[in-house]
Structures are given as C-alpha cells and as structure tokens.
Amino acid sequence: MAEIRLEHLRHSYMPNPQGPDDYALKEVDVTWEDGGAYALLGPSGCGKSTLLNIVSGLLAPSEGRILFDGQDVTGLPPDKRNIAQVFQFPVIYDTMTVRQNLAFPLKNRGVAPARIAERVAEIAAMLEVEDMLDTRAAHLSPDNKQKISMGRGLVRDDVNVVMFDEPLTVIDPHLKWKLRSKLKELHQRVRATMIYVTHDQTEALTFADKVVVMQEGEVVQIGTPVELFERPAHTFVGHFIGSPGMNILPGRVDAGQVMLGDVAVPMAGRVAGDGAVEIGVRPEFVELGDTGLPATVARVSDVGRHAIVEARLGDLTVKAKVEGTPPPAGTDVRLSFRPDRTRAYRDGWNVTEDAA
After folding, report:
1. Rounded (to 5) percent helix, strand, coil in the chain
2. Distance between CA atoms of 258 and 133, rounded to whole angstroms?
3. Region(s) of the chain under CATH 2.40.50.140
4. pLDDT tens readout for residues 322-352
5. pTM of the full structure
C-alpha cells in the first residue's frame, strides 16, 4: 500500500486555458495516508472523476505532481502504478466462475497456483461467497456481481491503492447498505489504502475515515464525518452534507457582533471585520423555546424519529430538527441557535476565528 500525495494539481481539458473557469480541476493539494479509508465526495461535474483518472494514470494533469510513497509517478502509465479499480458497473467475466474471476488478476501476474488458491479462499470468505465459487458469474444477482468485482480489486495484496468509482450506483437501494457495511468491514480487515468516489453523502460518511469534499474543481474541506457535520469550513459543505442542510441566513458584522436583523447572534468565536456575512447553523442546533428570535411555524414535516419544523423569521425560513411533538403550523415560537455550532461565512468560507 502507499501514501498518495497530490501537489499543486491542476487540469484543463482546453489546450490553452486562460483563467480559473477553464480548469476542471483548480489547484488541489491532498495527502491520502497509507492504509486509510477516504471518500471523494461532491456533485456531478465537480471534478471527482477527473481527479480519479489523474491518480490512476488514465489522464495526465496539466500541472502538478502525483507521488506514491514519495516517488513521482506523474508520467507513469496505469499499469506501472499498481492500482486496482472497481467501477460503477461490475467488471467480471460472465463465462467464468466466481473462483476464476477472483483468481484472474493473480493468474495474469504469474502468481503461484497455491498462493492463488489461498488468496481466493481468503477473499471469498471475507465476501461470504464461498458457496458460489463454482457458479458462473452470468447467473449471479447484480449485488453479488458487484461483490465479485470488489473482490477482484481486493484479491491482490501488492497494490498501492484500491479505488472505487461510484460502485453502488446500479445496486438496488435495499441492498446498498449491505455492500457498504461489507466494504467497511473489508477495509478494517485488509487495511488497504482505499479511495471511494461518490456523490452520495451517506455512502461517503459511512465508509470513510476522512472525506474530501469537492465543489467546482476545488477541495473545500477535508475532514472526518463529525468535523464536516459540526464544523463546516464552507457553506457548500454545510448545504451538501446533512438532511436537511445547514440554514444559511444573511447577516452583518457590526462592532464585532454578528447581527441577524437587529438581534446579535452569539457565535462559536470572534468574527473580524465589519460588513455582510452569512450565518450558518444546522437544523440540529436550532432550538424552539421561550426565548430567542420571534418566529411563526409555517410547516411541519414528520420524518419518523423527529420532525423538521420550518419557521418564518420575517422574510427568512429557518429549519429546526425537533424531537418529540412539534408545535403545529401557525404557532408563534422563539428560535435560538446553539452558539458553539453557529458560524459566520464570507464568500462561502468560514471566518469565525477560533472555529476549526
């Protein structure tokens, strides 16, 4: 396995890019530590696939370097980078048995038959497919085909990194959680460096130890799932992660105080400079009580274990996640924001000084 470091990476599909908007990848500096489980998360078109193809060697970056354990591999072709990939659609041979499919990457590299048999048995046990080793792949269900595709990526123990490109896209929703759990279990057992590319926050947050969040060709935050949820570095992170996403409200800084209308809002830390800001607070950290900003409940959505209350605060809508019985629509309420989870943002970026 390997530490993967991307240094000053940029890429444009144009021959002569003139400015930032011409780059599919703006400057990216990321380090994936050896043996870690990482997710690359963002919406379609944010640059995830471009970045993945650069790491794998399918695409040469316009600028910057890729290093595996300190070795510059920027100019090496894919077959020299020692990478295993699992794609959206299962890459297996339908005419082969499960055993033959799992053995193929090893047999193709001249591994000894005894070691192939041993390794196939290990992976089959991890995937819980021992009872189908002699079944032709054509007869497998879609989720089992993807299991075998994952197994082909994991069967080699000499790869630098295993990369998963939206591997659960074609899997039925009720089976996704099983494969997600299995993949997490596999990582904990084999401790391979794994990078999981997805636009699905649930997949990213349940698989990864750290998540790299991308927007419009930029990395906007790298952090653990808890860090991304509790301390979004950018409003995009607050909006994209969480259901519902973070409340983003227009505010201003006046003499060191962050104001929402005429009311000072306590922050997680000091905010320097005066002028317009955006106030960010997640629905989980909005409380309904007897004190705070006067508002009126406009809508209540029962989502099972809790309710989402949408309250009107003048011309603004603020969402709160409420446990227990929520107040009905039309009720006058008071809203307060948990100070240590409330932050100010300028141009999308967190400017609350002592907030991580």
Report:
1. 30, 35, 35
2. 63
3. 244-350
4. 998 899 999 999 999 999 999 999 999 999 9
5. 0.87
